[in-house]
Amino acid sequence: MIQSPAIKIFLNEVGELSRFTGRFFNQCFKPRYEFKEFIRQCFVIGYRSLPLVALTAFILGLVLTMQLRPSMVDYGVESQIPVIVGIAIIREIGPVITALIFAGKIGSSIGAELGSMKVTEQIDAMEVSGTNPFKYLAVTRIIAATVMLPVLVILGNAISLYGSYLGVNMQSTTSFSLFWTQVFDSLSFSDVVPSFVKSFFFGFAVGIIGCYKGYNSNKGTEGVGHSANSAVVVSSVMIFIIDLLAVQVTQALGLN
Amino acid sequence: MAKRIINNVKLGLFVLAGLVFLVLLLYMIGKDQNLFGETYKLKARFNNIQGLVVGNNVRFAGIQAGTVKKISIINDTVIEVTMIIDTKMKNIIRKNAIASINTDGLVGNRVVNIVPAHNPGPFAEEGDILVSRKAVATDDMIETLSKTNIDVADIAADLKITVQRINSSTALWALLNDMSIPENLKVSVANIRSATLKAGTLADNLNTIVSDVQEGKGSLGAILTDTSLAKNLNEAVVKIKTVADKADELAVELNKMAADIRQDVNQGKGTVNALLKDSMIVIKLNTSLDNIQQGTEGFNQSMEALKHNFLLRGYFRKLEKKKQKMKPE
Fold first, then answer.
1. Predicted confidence band of residue B7 (pLDDT cuts 50, 70, 90)
2. Which one of A83, A204, B222, B270 has the largest count of C-beta atoms within 10 Å of its C-beta?
3. Are A146 and B10 spatial neighbours (Cβ–Cβ below 8 Å)?
4. Does A46 contact B15 at a Cβ distance shorter than 8 Å?
């Protein structure tokens, strides 16, 4: 029916991913919750990612401010830098950059971890021993990623804005309270809420794609590398696609 | 196990920090929109809200007082803006305060500005409608500017013609190029200077005269400063006044006399009245006049008789001859 093998592979992949997502929703609401493992995964996925996210967010805020500055000075609206940087970070750059960093760190680690377990047949062994491997390995990781990314995004935004504050102060002077007043005055709920909701979807996409890729890896150790790599690539692309959808949805709901 | 607990504590801190920042962010934003804290509603009606939207700030005398809650169209010319105002402003905003829509900065968001009226009124309460004032809209400004531009263009065109005329005027340029004019001007200025000097001296002299007069020197000074003269003048004036009073009395007397005479005449007293009013006298007078006439005729006849008398005939003939002698001449 479908001639091109590439399209066939792509559609097969989409179908498999959808089936995997369905399986996740099926499993996650059924009893026997792996709560301890979930907490452990939250620690690994969330807390361990904080230094990386904090560093990138700080640099991002600082650089964004310094890059914006010349054009703003040209237009004579230097005083509006906090407003513009605030809106840019909260609405778009904070969630997306944090999610991409998160995809790079967590997507690859989940993909590699689950891939190697799959390749070394630990998952099969787990199934034999009576534990539900999907529940224990995939569901906990996916929920942890979904819940932890928004927390990272919020913290990242705060650090980013602090970086921006330093950036403003490098070439001119503003008081800490004036900076924050300007940022918060320009923001409204329609800026914060959609970006916060969006980050849950980013986290979910990273988690589910990482688990899917790891869970379906094959061909030995080579497959592990492949699954880790493709987990990062696909989840990064997914983040942008979700971002695109999110902006359409907020526009349609009139939240802009 | 211990390590696991430590990890859990770290995770807890991490999540709490995230939540705190989120709550802080939402609170800071919500604070501006008065979601937390007590508020009351005020309304204002405009005929053009110039792009004001729900959520825009409301300022009282420049201070953040609340936000726009609702915008509803009453009819095609009236738009009602409902604002939620912080309760703290309840004892500040008065009923007669004036609301207007302005722009925050040059290109910023729209804001509703409430300014107090000059005379105090009662405090505004929930649901009160404030007086609104039409703000200066950018469109109106531009419209005015375009009118001004047209005027400026007209003026520029006129100015151009004027300048061209000045440029082409040979007389003016000749005047400007004439080197003798400055010389003449110099001389004139020198003359003016000497005239001014003279005027100065004149003024000095005048000054001296005035001071002399003040001190009572000369006849003018005497007039102005001598107190006895003033006294005499005063007496004279008093006398004149008495004379005038007497003249008044005289006039009154005369008046009275005239009135008496008139009365006498009317009432038939005195000879004049008799003459005027008695008809018998008239008849008698007529008869007398007739008698006189008859007497005169008699006299004439007597005179004729005398002419023909021999004693006097010679005299009359002489008279006749004299008359004839006179005629041929």
1. confident
2. A204
3. no
4. yes
Rg (CA), chain B: 59
DSSP string, B90-125: TTT-BTT-EEEEEESTTTS-EEEEEE--SS--PBP-
Q: pTM score, two decimals? A: 0.60
Q: How far apart are CA A144 and CA A203, in angstroms?
A: 8
Distance CA B262, CA B256 (A): 10
Tokens of B47: 């005929």
**Which residues is B67 bridged to in the sheet?**
B57, B84
φ, ψ (nearest 5 deg) of residue A3: -80, -50
DSSP state of A138: I
Tokens 């983040």: give the residue.
Answer: A239
Cβ separation of A157 and B21 shorter than 8 Å? yes
Cα(A215)–Cα(A221) distance, rounded to whole angstroms?
14
- Find the closest chain A residue to B16 by CA distance: A151
A177's CB contacts (< 8 A; 6+ apart) are none
Phi-psi sector, B169: left (phi>0), alpha (psi -120 to 50), beta: beta
Nearest chain A Cα distance for residue B19, angstroms? 7
Give B57-95 pLDDT, tens digit per residue: 888 888 888 888 889 998 988 899 999 888 888 888 888
Strands B78-86 and B57-60: unpaired
The pLDDT of B237-260, averaged and rounded, is 89
> How far, in Å, CA of A70 to CA of B281, rounded?
136
Cβ-based contacts of A187 with chain B (< 8 Å): 25, 28-29
Distance from the first to the final alpha carbon of chain B: 189
Beta bridge partners of B83: B42, B68
Burial class (CB in 10 A: 0-12, 13-18, 19+), B41: middle
Average pLDDT, chain B: 84
For the segment B98-124, the average pLDDT, to the nearest whole number, is 84
Q: What is the pLDDT of residue A5?
A: 86
pLDDT band at A200 (very low <50, low <70, confident <90, very high): very high
Q: How far apart are CA A244 and CA A202, in angstroms?
A: 12
Are B44 and B99 in contact by the 8 Å Cβ rule? The answer is: yes
* CB distance A177 to A74 below 8 Å: no
Is A105 a residue whose pLDDT tops 60? yes
CA B175 vs. chain centroid, Å, equals 44
Distance from CA of B28 to the nearest CA of A (A): 6
Distance, CA of B133 to CA of B117 (rounded, Å): 12
Asked if A46 and B14 count as a contact pair (C-beta separation under 8 A), the reply is: yes
Average pLDDT on B256-285 reads: 74
Quote the tokens at residue A75: 């237009």
Nearest Cα residue to B114 out of B130, B129, B98 = B98
Cβ-based interface (< 8 Å): residues of A facing B: 39-40, 42-43, 46-47, 50, 90, 150-152, 154-155, 157-158, 180, 184-185, 187-189, 191-192, 196
A18-27, B58-67, B265-274: which range is least confident on average? B265-274
